[in-house]
Structures are given as structure tokens and as C-alpha cells.
Records
---
Amino acid sequence: MKKMLLSIAIIMVAAGLAAPSAMARGMRGGAFSHRPGVEMRGAPVHGPRVVKPMAPMGGRPVAHRYGMRFNSRPAGVVVNFGGVNFIYNNGIFYSAIKHGYEVVRPSIGMIVPSLPVGHTVIMRPGGIKHFAHNGILYTPMRRGGTVVFRVAGFI
């Protein structure tokens, strides 16, 4: 019996089934599947898992919430509003703080050069078009011959 259990354990380890490797666990502690574009997080390895799509490469980082702080400057374009510079990257607004950058809620009236990936179109009565993403409403407007988007409100 011991030899049979030992044989099964050796086969499982060789097949990588006994415990997820460091590569499979990923950097943040969740388990990643072998299928590209799908991330499995939450439940322990022996129980059911929640499967959700991962953010596309170069797209919006996963789960940026207001108040999150980062030590290094995030990628994005500089948006000036009220004499204060913010960094805008795919629907996320960052403000410089003493030792890095913080995710902040945008102010109504901020103008950004592009809409975030994954936005939805909202048609209002009278044919007024708004775009929504992550609880923020954007309105298109012309500036210098190009179309930019103004933060119009929140959902």
C-alpha cells in the first residue's frame, strides 16, 4: 500500500498536480490557468475557483480603486485641470502625492484625449450621446479640430 501511494505521489509531482508551482501561482498569490487570457483567483487550490477574464496586455490594470498608491509614475498623458496636473491612463486618473501617485476620482469638467477601452454608449433624449466607463460619464466635444472627451458626471 505504501509503495502504491508513493508511486501516485511521484506521478502527481512529476505531472505538476500535487502543488502549483511558483509560475502557476503568479506574482499576486492567485492561481493562473494554462489558458491565456483567463485568471483564476479566490478559492483554495482544492476547492472551486472563480474564473474571470484578465485585463488585455497594455489595457487597464486590474482593480485600481480610488485611494490606491504607487511609488513610481504610472504611464499615461498629463491632463491639467484647475492648475493641477493629473495623469490619465485608460479611464484611471492619478494625482501626484508626496511619495508617489494616488488613484483619484476625476473632477467634472476634466478633458481627456481618448475614451477608455470597454466604455459603453448611452443615448439620452434629444440624441445626446454620452459614454460611460467605471461609473464616470464622458461627453464628446470638439477642441481645435479634434474630438476630446469631457468628464460630465458620475453614475
---
Amino acid sequence: MSIRMKTPPRMPPDAADAARALRARPAGEGQPSADAVVRPDGEITFAIDALNLWYGAKQALTGVGLEIARRKVTALIGPSGCGKSTLIRCLNRMNDLIPGVTITGRVDYRGVDIYGADVDPVEVRRRIGMVFQKPNPFPKSIYENVAFGARVNGFRGNLDDLVERSLRRAALWDEVRGDLRKSGLALSGGQQQRLCIARALANNPDVILMDEPCSALDPIATLKIEDLMRELADDYTIVVVTHNMQQAARVSDYTAFMLTDEETTGRLIEYAPTETMFTQPADQRTEDYISGRFG
């Protein structure tokens, strides 16, 4: 199924002002050194180039450029306000839903610029699912939570099989198989988060974005989500925002460190294989952050 459409999206009214501000910035300002951003091995799911984003007149991302590997876990780390969540929402055009947002640069998903004029953002979000910080099950049964998106997208197969398969992939089936008519809101926090993951999987995505998926969970529920992420990476590209350095070290294959300072907002500082990032960082600021000296 194509992600393209014929009707171009309307540009935000302040796009021209944002573009002028971008042109006024000296070339290369705020960019990481060449040896601080690696190119992942193997296939690439996202190629991000010179990505800038403004909320009205406030810039939140500045010249971000990196490539995200297919069927790997990539972690985005950095202090609060550095643009991690903004960046992850750029990967499936969730920021389009916020009034006054302006975006320049490219986000190529498997060779297609998802911000191209002929791209359908609804199809982008179907292929690139998202799990949010706080579990947000629908006020429906467990079964209907999983089946809802498939129905909306015109699924014609066996819904019972789809629900079971999605719940199994989310490591939740054995816990709820006898209570599928129970409200999703009656589950524990960790179970609700896995239900949201099952709901995303039911839409047959290629990518799963996770914005601090464990921040509201206890350690046992967090461990289950982390184990699930590693299992899902066999079949899906996963990008996760986390403030937990130990979590990033445990679950991710690659890590991107972002920072906002007095001069530049939403800046990529370093991007490398996780083991390299945590043992031999290329930038002193990365070492200071992961060692707890700031942030």
C-alpha cells in the first residue's frame, strides 16, 4: 500500500518566517562533529537530514541528521527539553496535529520523504505505530482495544486470530485469554501498556515508536516491557525515548544523545552503537551526561 496521496498538505502560516530564520543561521552551526555520528550497519529504515522544527517562533530541533537501522532498537537520550519526544513524533508526523508547527529538512522512510507533498500522513501513522508515555487504552474491552484499529483500516481477515496473535506478540495473551471482554482500563499499568503495544501491532506496522513507555511503571512491569522490546526487534524497527540510562544500555542497539544549550535547541550531539556510546563516547558532554554529571 502506497503512502502517497495527490492532495498536498497546507503549509503553516509561519513557514516563511521559519525558513528565513534557518537561512540566517551560519552553515554548520550546531552540528555534531563527523566522527560523533555513525552510519548503522545493514538496512536503513529512516534517513533524517537537516531536520528543523519550530513551535510557533520557538525552535525545538536544530539541524538533526542521523540514520536509524532496520529491525534494531534505537534509544534517544538527553535531559528534559532537548527535543527527544519532538524528534520521535517527527517520525510518524504526529507533530502535524499541533497548531503552529513548522518543519524543514527531510525524513526519509525507506526511501520516501514522509513530508513530501504527495504523502498521506494517515498511512504514515499506520505503518509507523506509536506507544505513549502513559498507557492510554480505549474505554472498551481488551478484545475491542486490539481489534478497533484493524476494523477502522478495513481488515478483512479473522479478527479473533488477529487479536490473539497481537496479544501473544505483546506477551499479554496468557494473562488475559480468559477475560477478553473485560475492560482494558481494569488492567494493571504494565498490562495496559502491553495492551497498547498489542493495539499497535494489530495494524501490522513496520516501525514502533515508544515515548518513555516505562516511566509510569514499576520495576517488574518495566522489565517485561524491556524484554518485549528486544523480542519485537526481530521483526520491527523500534525507536524509544528514555531518561533511564540503564534502560538504554540494556535494550538498545544504537543510542542518540541530544542536548539543548544556551545557543542551540534540540541538537544531536552524538549517535553511535550503544556499547560504544556508554564506554567510549566521542564527545565530553555525552560522557558527562551518561555519568550523571548533569541532566
---
Amino acid sequence: MALVAATLFLGVSAAGQNKFQASVRSLPPQQQDGGFSVFSSITKYLALGDAASLSSWFADNLDVTVLSSNRNCSRKQAQEILRNFFEANTPRSFQVTHKASESNKKYIIGLLNAGGELFQVTIYATASAGDTYKIQQLNIARQTAAY
């Protein structure tokens, strides 16, 4: 579904008659969601519990925190950590609750419903050459308080 930006102009002609003019244009896809389209695949893979597909978005090395275990690891190690987490906590859904960005950095926070529990997931991604975003940090923590 394309978002549309509308510009309205109401002016008065020399004869005193009101003129109404409208122009409608579609926003480019990257502006429709504030440039967060990079996260559409990532959030889908989280909801599906697809660690292998999710790992294609990982940087070569990244910080991964799952529950209380924190480590800097390779893409392959991070994939294995997430695969184990998803096996123990079968995902049902993922909902983004917050997103923010600055220059070449973006992050989202969301709630993962998995294994009968809610987990807060925070993902930081940065862009390198060619505006390709890669996940630098991934944090999964048990949700302890209601929003």
C-alpha cells in the first residue's frame, strides 16, 4: 500500500474568486516508513524463528545478548545462539514498539511472543557503503514489566 502526500493550495484570484488546487504524489518506499524498510525482513524472520535467514543480516562480528548471556561473536556463532533460543522458545509473533535513527544507524525495539513468554528485543543496525544495513547488536531479554 503506497502512502500519498497531498499538497493543498487555496488562493484568491484577481477577480476575488477562490481557487482550489491540489497535487498528489506518492512517497518513495524508503520515505513511507521513515527508511525502516530494512527491518521488514528482519522482523519477519524473528516472528518465524528463522535464525538462518536472520543471520544474513548480521555483521561479520556482532554483540549478542540472549537472556543473561552476552558475547561478541561471529555471524555463524550468533546464528547458533539464536537457533538454540528459538528451539527453546517457539516464536508466535513479533511487534515493533519503537524505532529511531540517526545518519547511518537505525534501531528498533519490539516484543517477541515466544514459548508462552514475552521478550523485549532490541536491534541496532548500521549502514556501510551502499546503504546496506547489518545488525551490529541484538539483545533479547525477558519482558518484566507491562508497557
---
Amino acid sequence: MAVKIRLQRHGSKKRPFYFIVVADARAPRDGKFIQKIGTYNPLSQPAAVQLDRQKALDWLQKGAQPTDTVRRILSFKGVLYLKHLLRGVSLGLFDEATAMNKFQEWHEGHEGSIKKKQEEAVRARRTRKPLAPKKTEQPEEQKEEGNG
């Protein structure tokens, strides 16, 4: 059975909200699934992703194939990087403690950048002013030509 990690759409028209699920590849998009491993809300700034990192990693190691969008989400959350580090451990390149230290360093830096983006979005939302109609003025040259 081919297993995919994909998005399952919920929410109303023009207000999407997704569950990240593990499902049989033959099942319909919003149909039967094996396990729910997270949620994705693309409407928030930045997009809100809740993900059970351990479940996602387990399914990837079992051979589940993520769709393109889910692959980007997993990469954003560090699941693919963690899988990469654990592969290095299994090959004997370094020990598990080193791998976890590398992941923690990456995770802390990544969380800091996410918080910065959230603060910038909040600041931009507060300073945003309603759009006023633009006044179009003719350049001086055109005014003189029209009067002459």
C-alpha cells in the first residue's frame, strides 16, 4: 500500500484550513486517512503550522511520501533535517547526542526568525492606514502645453 503525507482541506469557501494527514494514496483528498499529524493555516501571518514532529518522522522512516506542499512544511519545521541527521547517525558519521545538539541549534535560530517575522507582521498591521484615493497631477510641462 502506497502511503502519502498530504493536506486535507477543511474550512469554508475562500477560508482554507488544512489537516496534515497520513493516508493511502488511493483515498480521496478529503476522505479516509490513517492518522492526523498536524494542522496548517495559510491565512495567518506567517502561516501557522502545528505538527507532531515525532509522528511525521516515524512515517517518513516507514516510507511515506509527502506531497510537494507537505514536503515544504516538513522542511520548514525541521523534520526533514532531523531525518537527515538521523541517517548520519545510522551511517556512523556521528553519535545521536551530536545530531540532537545540531538540531537544537538550528531549531533555536529558526524559532527566533519566525518570532521576528510575526512581530514585523503585527507592526505592519498596526501601522497600516486605509488607502486614500490618489491625486494625479499633470507634470509642469504638460500643463504649459495645454494652456498655450
